[in-house]
UniProtKB/TrEMBL annotation:
The lineage of its organism: Bacteria, Pseudomonadati, Pseudomonadota, Alphaproteobacteria, Sphingomonadales. This is histidine kinase. GO terms for molecular function: ATP binding; phosphorelay sensor kinase activity. It comes from Novosphingobium lindaniclasticum LE124. Keywords: ATP-binding, Kinase, Nucleotide-binding, Phosphoprotein, Transferase, Two-component regulatory system. It catalyses: ATP + protein L-histidine = ADP + protein N-phospho-L-histidine.
Length: 390
């Protein structure tokens, strides 16, 4: 029961404050806790649905009413008017904290405006010092602008990362054309041979079959090349999935080997055969590998290194996978090492200085880290880690 005094107090506050009545949810909260302990998700979900339906929004000040697009004359209303079922667990946990533990509960979640649009808020619940029945006080902070800004920044970063992938592929145009031209030339030669075999007075069907099989193989090669190019140039990131980092390294090495050979770089790969799987976005992590490997090749070319070697190695360490890209180039001067990952800082003439910054952001988004490791001898090592998870 909400007293006249408490209602006036809520109205007087300048924050978005409200009170909810949980008097009809006591048994449901007990059921929810019991089902959770018993590991009964279906019953647990049903209890949550009932908790949302039975909890009432009984008082709200002007700020809260405006926030959710409600009118004071509508109260009390079921909290389900503003609380989607997807956030039901947060409601249950906040009620348990307030009513059973006399504690506050804070969470960031998406509630619902009366118009139906999603409303991101920071939500806090507590029980007053002199509680009245099962009344819980709640406060809301609208974080819509912050969430919108974060979403815009994330989209911008993805756009810049996409542009960086396209730029990298532009540098490799000659290699890409060469990779596709070879199997296409094979297909044409094999087709001509098959026509000759068929045109004989006694067609050699075995030779024709062999030519058609080789054509199919060459066609598959073209398809695989186009698939790899499409994946790298795609503006959309893939969903993260459990992947083999070794396979990703091998695929990237195969993709870049011809281009690196053209730049007189000898590529070696050392793979830990006992590497666990990692949850990752294949396109993004492959972008990091391509950037690091092409940066190394460019650095060795710019320094006119006589011996140009590039080593990519993987190894498992504790609960993470480490990937190292090591080159025999000139290394990075001590005075520039601290700024390597700064945005718009580049050691290349005309470089934008975004490549390494993007790479570090991608790895950090995966829960890992990207660092530069100096070598006692000439050369550089860039190492990134990826958590293996459970």
């Amino acid at each position: 029961m909400v007293t006249e005094g408490s209602a006036k107090m809520v109205e007087a506050m300048s924050l978005a404050l409200a009170q909810i009545d949980a008097s009809q949810t006591a048994v449901l909260l007990d059921e929810y806790v019991a089902y959770q302990a018993a590991g009964a998700p279906a019953s647990q979900s049903e209890a949550l649905r009932k908790i949302v339906a039975k909890t009432l929004l009984v008082a709200a000040n002007g700020k809260a009413l405006a926030l959710f697009g409600l009118k004071g004359s509508e109260l009390p209303v079921p909290v389900s008017r503003i609380w989607p079922f997807g956030e039901a667990e947060t409601l249950a946990l906040s009620l348990l904290a307030a009513l059973r533990q006399n504690d506050t509960h804070r969470a960031e979640l998406n509630l619902r405006h009366a118009s139906g649009r999603e409303l991101p808020v920071i939500y806090t619940s507590w029980r007053e010092v002199n509680p009245s029945a099962d009344i819980v006080s709640v406060g809301f902070v609208d974080v819509s602008e912050r969430v919108a800004t974060e979403t815009a920044l994330h989209r911008l970063r993805n756009d810049v990362a996409h542009a960086d992938r396209i730029s990298t592929m532009g540098v490799m145009t000659a290699t890409i054309v060469h990779e596709i031209r070879q199997p296409i030339a094979s297909i044409l030669n094999l087709a001509h041979a098959a026509l000759r075999w068929v045109g004989r007075p006694e067609p050699d069907l075995a030779a024709v079959k062999s030519s058609l099989e080789d054509i199919q193989s060459a066609g598959n090669s073209v398809r695989d090349i186009v698939t790899r190019l499409h994946g790298m140039s795609s503006a959309k990131s893939q969903l993260r999935a459990r992947c083999s980092v070794n396979e990703l390294v091998e695929e990237t090495a195969a993709f870049l080997r011809a281009e690196l050979s053209r730049r007189q770089v000898k590529l070696s790969v050392q793979l830990d055969s006992y590497l666990p799987l990692a949850s990752l976005d294949r396109v993004q992590v492959q972008q990091v590998l391509v950037n690091l490997m092409m940066n190394a090749a460019q650095a060795m070319a710019d320094a006119h290194c006589w011996s140009r070697t590039l080593l990519v190695r993987t190894r498992a360490l504790d609960a993470s996978i480490h990937v190292e890209v090591e080159d025999s180039g000139p290394g990075v001067p001590p005075e520039t090492r601290e700024r390597l990952f700064d945005g718009f800082f580049s050691t290349k003439p005309g470089g934008l200085g975004l490549g390494l910054r993007i790479c570090r952001s991608i790895i950090e988004d995966h829960g890992g880290e990207l660092v530069y490791v100096s070598k006692a001898s000439a050369g550089s090592i860039f190492r990134f880690s990826l958590p293996t998870g459970s």
